[in-house]
Design a protein that fits this description.
The protein is about 20% helix and about 30% strand. It is of the alpha+beta class. It has a 4-stranded antiparallel beta sheet with strand order 1-2-3-4.
Length: about 70
């Protein structure tokens, strides 16, 4: 019998609620699958960058504080 390797789960991508639907610059983020947070440009979905959960949380807090 030949066993098939289980397919790796694929991330569920989402855009910021501040993104528009008319082709603007959008960053998408997915829930972490292995500890790191995957991030991608919606116009280039094949190119994914991952950052640590700590770095992502610090970035979100800085955005909320108005640093960007």
């Amino acid at each position: 019998m030949i066993s098939k390797a289980a397919a790796a789960p694929s991330p569920e991508w989402r855009k910021s609620s501040y993104s528009s639907n008319n082709g603007g610059n959008c960053v998408e983020v997915a829930n972490p699958l292995s500890g790191d947070v995957p991030i991608r440009d919606s116009k280039k979905p094949g190119s994914v960058t991952a950052v640590s959960r700590v770095a992502w949380d610090e970035f979100i807090e800085a955005v909320k504080a108005g640093h960007f």
